[in-house]
Amino acid sequence: MPLEDELGEALRSAGAAFTPDPQALVAAGERRGRRLVARRRAAVAGGSVLALALVGTAGAWTGGLIGGDGKGEVASAPALPSRGPARPPGDGPEERGGTGAVTAQQMTEILKSLMPAGQFTAAESRGSDSQGPMATGLFDDGKGQGRVGILLTRIDPAGGMAKEMTTCPDRRNVAFDSCKEEKLPDGSRLLLIQSYDYQDSRKSVKDWRATLATPQGYLLDAQEFNAVQSKQARPTRPEPPLGMDRMKALVLSDKWRPALADLPPAPSESGPPTGPAKGPEEDAEMFLATLLRGYEIPVADRGGDGGYGYVVLDDGKGRSLVELRVQRVKDSSGFPEDATATTDGIRAKVTQGPAEGNAPGVVRWSVDTLRPNGVRITVSAYNAPKQTGPASRTAPALTAEQVKEVALNRHWRDVYGR
């Protein structure tokens, strides 16, 4: 069967296998909560934990910047200015950036100014003309480099996301050493969590995070790692460079106020009915784009339909297509028999080689997985911008290990359970 026909058949099969979310979510109880948190986090500029593989954390400051004593002890969040009422329903739910009052370079300078003594390098940032202003870089205090950074965005202060983003996760779903929730005097909610990049804390990079949600509808999300990157990285130091007191001070700093004030209000979560949040089976494009943001590779194009989504990556060495297919299957009869089973009972088949039926020189790294509950997730990467070629590079922009990492990402469990 030609590849185009095979894709069409896959999409039709996936569509026929979809189950409606509303009733299932209502009846699912705890599972519903996990799914909503995962989806909402994915919706906030790439999903905090997901997107902040490229963002991080920083804390630290010069003497007197936060509380005057240089120790970062702050009683409450800074009083952020209001921008008036939320946008009317006619504006729709689409998020928008601000006027650009704070540039990307200024975001970097602010983050750098909040660092303790040490070297801050490899900075990347976005200004307030973006939906999610951010700044990130590598910080080294002489004990090894660690990635740090911060992401700013707006949320509905009366909605459920503010609480969900600042609530400690269930230990059954997320591995962490400590987690603390705080309610500040001004009504802001703060989450401080010391977790891991993966569930296996014995091998994983440490992932420390501070998240602040204010009554004005501002969300400040900071992360740091004890490595130069989160994905498949080796620790470069025993702990992330900033302690949790500095993490707290980072999100409480009023230096972020101009960028936050430049962002338009977020849509009301209780506004016009838009239907339930879409899951991977209904919006594979969004989930794939979210999962890929952690690799910090620029996106040239993206699209999809329902359970099929694609992203074209361009790292300057040639464009590379990455695809995601999500569907429910009744049995495993069509799944590769030589697949390997993981400890979670997930069967996975890894394929590397020429992409059959395509132009000469096109190769595909593919990981096909089947979960015990019948959810089949397939991720493929090509060394070309299209399946049919022509080849634009010698190998896909993602390594085979990274493709496998996306297919077996821990966040699939948040959505579908074990």
Describe the fold and architecture.
With 418 residues, the protein is α+β, with helices and mostly antiparallel strands. The protein folds into 2 domains: 3-18 and 281-416, Protein Transport Mog1p, Chain A; 52-79 and 92-261, no CATH class. It is built from 10 helices and 14 strands. It has a 7-stranded antiparallel β-sheet. Strand 11 (340-341) and strand 12 (347-354) form a beta hairpin. Helix 2 packs across helix 3 (30-43). The longest helix has 15 residues, at 3-17. It is globular, with a radius of gyration of 22 Å. The relative contact order is 0.15. Mean pLDDT is 75; it is low at 1-95.
Brief account:
The chain has 418 residues and is of the alpha+beta class. It has two domains: 3-18 and 281-416, Protein Transport Mog1p, Chain A, CATH 3.40.1000; 52-79 and 92-261, no CATH class.
Number of strands: 14
Counting structural domains, the number is: 2
Tell me about the biggest sheet?
Answer: 7 strands, antiparallel
Radius of gyration: 22 Å
Keywords:
Protein Transport Mog1p, Chain A; alpha+beta; single chain; disordered N terminus; 2 domains; 21% helix; 418 residues; seven-stranded antiparallel beta sheet; 10 helices
Strand and helix layout:
Blueprint: H1 3-17, H2 21-28, H3 30-43, H4 104-113, E1 119-126, E2 134-140, E3 145-154, H5 161-165, E4 176-183, E5 189-196, E6 206-213, E7 218-225, H6 244-252, H7 257-261, H8 284-292, E8 299-305, E9 308-314, E10 319-328, E11 340-341, E12 347-354, E13 363-370, E14 375-382, H9 400-407, H10 411-416
Antiparallel strand pairs: 1-2, 2-3, 3-7, 4-5, 5-6, 6-7, 8-9, 9-10, 10-14, 11-12, 12-13, 13-14
Helix pairs in contact: 2-3
